[in-house]
Amino acid sequence: MSTEQDDLEVFARMGKTIYFNTVQDSVGVLLYGAYVVLFAICLKLSLDHSLKSKAAKFLLGAILLLFVSTTSQFVFDMIFILQQIKAYIMATDVPLAERRSRYIARFLSLRVAAVWPVMVNFMISDIIVVWRAWVLYPNRMGIRAILAVVTLADAFLWFYSQGLVSTHANEPNSPTTDQQISTASTFMSLGANVVGTACIAAKALAHQRTVKAAWRNEGSARRGDVSRILFVLVETGAIFAVIQLLAGITGQVDLVSLTPLDMATDVVGKAAIYLAAILPTATVIIVRSHQSVETWSLQDSFTDAGKPKPSTKISTIRFGDSAPTARSTGDSDMPTIDYAPEQGESANAPISNYGTTLGGSKEVSMV
Fold first, then answer.
1. Residues 235, 218: Cα–Cα separation, whole Å
2. How many Å apart are CA 175 and CA 331, to the nearest integer?
3. What's the angle, vertex CA 112, arms to CA 111 and CA 118, rounded to 5?
4. 241 Cβ partners below 8 Å, 6+ apart?
5. 225-279 pLDDT, tens per residue?
6. 25-31: long-range contacts at Cβ-Cβ below 8 A with a sequence spacing of 24 or more?
């Protein structure tokens, strides 16, 4: 039979648990609210444009899957915190010492299901980053092989990790093995994001050097939508990498429950789940909002001296489906991207060569 002091200690621990969960779920509510607004804008922009290309269909499918997964996470969060308050505080007919165990037993199946939205959010976010890097390197099989390997490793670790965690969902603290594999999956996700973002960054810098070289004699330092969007992809990838790194580190050093470090770990982890959906969605909005085609014609873009005219736009990268634009290689309604010089090509080549380097036939779907 428990003493009054024991009951007070149990009740105090329950109150602290509810407080910790309320803090992290408050962060989740704020981020989910922001996400819903972004998703609505993103969906409208996507539906307002053609969905003929495979790239557009893939991206729309990924965004919809992210919405389902993120909404599921939010629903689970709300169910758990509300039912926890009810079970810990309002269930006065149940002895204090038994309230927690009964709550866990009652919602065991939901606890098992709740581990999967985390995996879906992280994996979809990683796949979007890797896919964007993949289409930038159509002729670089080595780079594509690396991207494929990290993506497969990322998927394997996430499925293995979440499967293992779900089998121990009824335990108050996951075993050391669970914690280690969960941390490994987080860092593998970080690796996939870093590799994909690094590939995009390399292409962005190469494109920027080419544009500067083309306009050097014109005294212009214009960056244009192409470079801005490429660097937006890099910046959002870098932001998420920092969040992933923090989640991985805090998850590894958080060994004692209901401490300030435990709260920080839970808040960072919760933020990471929602940011995995927010950042790709926000990026699509930015890209869709700057999806005009920068194009040029060999006949009309150069002076007799071989220099680009001041009004010339140097690139034909298109980041979304828009109305076809006439160009020297013909019309196209597919989202396209023409590349900065590949390995072995010079960014300082004569201006007459830019027609084959930037306005040639290397076109792939981007977003």
1. 29
2. 59
3. 85
4. 190, 193, 194, 197
5. 667 777 888 888 888 899 889 888 887 776 777 888 888 888 998 999 999 999 8
6. 25/77, 25/78, 25/81, 25/270, 27/267, 27/270, 27/271, 28/73, 28/74, 28/77, 28/270, 28/271, 28/273, 28/274, 29/74, 31/270, 31/271, 31/274, 31/275, 31/278
Name every residue whose Cβ is closer than 8 Å to that of residue 21 and which is 6 or more positions away in sequence.
Answer: 80, 81, 84, 266
- Give 320's contacts (C-beta < 8 A, 6+ positions apart): 49, 56, 287, 288, 291, 335, 367
Given a contact cutoff of 8 angstroms between Cβ atoms, the answer to whether 309 and 301 are in contact is yes
Cβ pair 32, 117 in contact under 8 A: no
Task: Please tell me the distance from the alpha carbon of residue 143 to that of residue 137, in angstroms, as a whole number.
Answer: 7
pLDDT tens by residue, 348-363: 433 333 332 223 333 3
Q: Phi and psi dihedrals of 302, rounded to 5? A: -125, 150
Tell me how far apart the alpha carbons of residues 254 and 55 are, in angstroms, rounded to a whole number: 41
Question: How far is Cα 274 from Cα 216, in angstroms, rounded to an integer?
Answer: 43
Q: In this structure, which amino acid lies at residue 150? A: V
* pTM given for the model: 0.72
With vertex at residue 332, the alpha carbon angle to CA 326 and CA 334, rounded to the nearest 5 degrees, is: 140
Which distant-in-sequence residues (6+ apart) come within 8 Å of 59 by Cβ? 46, 128, 284, 367
At which residue do the structure tokens 């992290």 appear? 24
Torsion of CA 235, 240, 243, 247, to 10 degrees: -150
Alpha helices in 108-175 (DSSP H): 108-113, 116-135, 141-167
Asked whether the beta carbons of 201 and 234 are under 8 A apart, the reply is: yes
CB-based contacts of 9, cutoff 8 Å, min separation 6: none
Total Cβ atoms within 10 A of residue 367: 26
**From 69-73, 120-124, 256-260, 273-277, the region with the lowest mean pLDDT:** 256-260
**What does the pLDDT read at residue 217?**
54
